[in-house]
Amino acid sequence: MSPNRRFLSFERPRRRMVEEQLIPAGITDTRVLHAMNTVPRHLFVDDALLGHAYQDSSLPIGSGQTISQPFMVARMSELLALEGHERVLEIGTGCGYQTAVLSCLCRRVYSIERIAALHTKARKNLRQAHHANVMLKCGDGLLGWVEYAPFDAIMVTAGGFASDVWMEQLCEGGVLLMPEGEKGAHRLVRRKKLVAGIEEEYFNACTFVPLLKGEL
C-alpha cells in the first residue's frame, strides 16, 4: 500500500456510493448508511484497484477471495438490525471491510479468517482505518469462537451451510445471517434463536466464495 494512501479521503466517491447506489437499491437503515459513508473502502482494496474502490462490485483481494460489493455489505449489515450494544461474531474476515462496517454498528466484533495471509492483511487494514473495537483470529470459522460466546449476532461471509456450533454460540434472541446454498447459488438466510425454536427468513439471492473448513 502506498504510504500516502491512508491520507486520501475519497469523500465524494464514498458519498456517491451511498446516494447513487445504496439508497436507490433500497438500503434504508440510517446507521448502516452512515457507516458505509464513513468507512474508507479504498484502504481495504489493493493499490491496482484503487480507482474501483467505490464501484458497486466485488473485487479480488488475493488468495482466491473477494471484497463484497458495497450493496451486499450494506444489505447484510442492515439485516442484522444492530442497535450498538451487541457483540458480533463474523465468520470470514477477508480484507476486513465488512468487519470495519460492523464495528461502526455494534459494541465489539470478533472475526475469524482461515487464510493466514488475509488475516494479516485485515489486521493491517483495520489498524490503518482506526477500528479498535475488533478482535481477530486466524482459524477455522466453522468452530466459532467459544471463548467469547455467546454472541448477539453471527454473520457468515462465505456461502455454504450453517455449522451447528454457531447456533449453540448464539445467545437467546440472537441472529445468524449467512448466504446459504452451494456451487455459487446462494440466498441470504436469517435465523433467530428463540426459546421455542428457530425463526427463519429468506432474502436476496447472491453469490459468495465457498465456506471451507480448516485454516491455511
Describe this structure in a few short sentences.
This protein is an alpha/beta fold and 216 residues long. It is 26% helix and 29% strand.
Instruction: Indicate the radius of gyration in whole angstroms.
Output: 16 Å
Q: How many distinct folded domains?
A: 1
> Which CATH C-level class is it?
Alpha Beta
The CATH topology turns out to be Rossmann fold
Characteristic terms for this protein:
9 strands, seven-stranded mixed β-sheet, globular, two-stranded antiparallel ribbon, 216 residues, Rossmann fold, alpha/beta, 6 helices, 29% strand
What report would you give on this structure?
This protein has 216 residues and is of the alpha/beta class. It has a single domain, classed as Rossmann fold (3-Layer(aba) Sandwich), CATH 3.40.50.150. It is 26% helix and 29% strand. The protein is built from six helices and nine strands, in the order ααββαβαβαββαβββ. The protein has helices at 11-22, 30-38, 70-80, 97-103, 116-128, 164-168, and strands at residues 59-62, 65-67, 87-91, 108-113, 134-138, 151-156, 170-182, 185-194, 197-206. It has a seven-stranded mixed beta sheet. The protein has a two-stranded antiparallel ribbon with strand order 1-2. α1 (11-22) runs antiparallel to α2. The longest helix is centred in the middle third of the chain and has 13 residues, at 116-128. The chain is globular and about 50 Å long. It starts with 10 loop residues before the first helix and ends in a 10-residue tail after the last strand.
